[in-house]
């Protein structure tokens, strides 16, 4: 069977779908080859609208079909009963086989839908679903639509090209963009192709046209790059033109980047050690207080009841210490009575200990007391602060907050001049959605002009990925390190961060004081088992 054009007679050989499995009249979809630019196959609806593109021929296979193996033989073809969703299925009869076997079927997933991620967008299915991301040096053209998972508007450049000092970003293992308006020269080398593209200010990207026996030939795109997808195996290398400020750093710039990463890692380590030291000191201080309180209980008799007392807000000062009630309305039990009931917090009355403190039996009865301490939670993940659930993703959240503080020069908690945002996370998320994340940069650094725009945006994007509300959405630290150290890596778009609420909205967790402080509260709760 032959598909494609007969250049002598002008005959176009193409496939047309049936109207339905039981109706062989022509359907709405066709599969054939387009001779404009570099020839490649298209599935089209109504003869015009592209639905799927298999990429140009690279000497071994079509670049969008890495499943094609060059040395298969004994293929036979016949019409098969396609599903009613108009797919293209290729069947083979293996040597010695007993029937037809499905070799491949198209489209495979959403990334096979033509232009799914728009211009300069890359489609990837590594997360289990079709996810779109912008090529490095580009940002969503319509952030609001991207939040709604509509990326058809594609991406726009962060820095316009000026034809001076431009370079190329290498995308590995991708399906080459639509070549309808591209040009091909099979007689030159890839290095010559690079120089030709640099000399042409309208050149957007280039790639080798033949990868058989080593890269050779040249394909040049002078318009928008549409319909790019990433493969985990197979695919080709594509070189996308970027402005000098958006190019990955190398040489001295690379050392500066490594220095920044080292500083971030060192600061996070210092922060973790500081938390550990404070935790140990706090535990020792609390145990000392319990011991001193327990010395006053020797004269107690067994009839001492657990009497509820009113919690005092430490931020109220002397008036609260004098006995005036606060507005927290949290019921506690007298510390002396609790210590007596637990036999001075004896080890044999201790049931266990977790992130919220030790749990004790009360007087040997079937009751339990939990001692809880809630400190400043600016770096604490939502699931730990709210539910006491801790995992490796909790530290990732803290690291993301730290990165945002380093980039902005501001603390996470506090009021901001916008009048709407109550935390650094809220401010960063708002600016990111508006496509103005660069405004988060420390004013002193911005005035100095020593920063790279692409590095700032990448740090903000990585930080927002780390502070996403759902732990499963946050990356592992290994992935964070690779993202910071590999400027060419394609990053997903971050989702809503934790603790991100707007002042006055119905979903706010509470109001913050003008000084941005959070009270330290100690809570003891009795609950039945």
UniProtKB/TrEMBL annotation:
InterPro entries: Kinase-like_dom_sf, Pan_app, S-locus_recpt_kinase_C, S_locus_glycoprot_dom, Ser-Thr/Tyr_kinase_cat_dom
Domain of life of the organism encoding this protein: Eukaryota
Source species of the chain: Miscanthus lutarioriparius
SMART domains found in the cross-reference section: PAN_AP
Transmembrane region(s): 260-281
Record-annotated Apple domain positions: 163-243
PROSITE patterns: PAN
CDD domains: PAN_AP_plant
One of the GO BP terms on file: recognition of pollen
Keywords, alphabetical: Disulfide bond, Membrane, Signal, Transmembrane, Transmembrane helix
Pfam family, any one: PK_Tyr_Ser-Thr
One Gene Ontology term of the molecular function aspect: protein serine/threonine kinase activity
UniProt name for this protein: Apple domain-containing protein
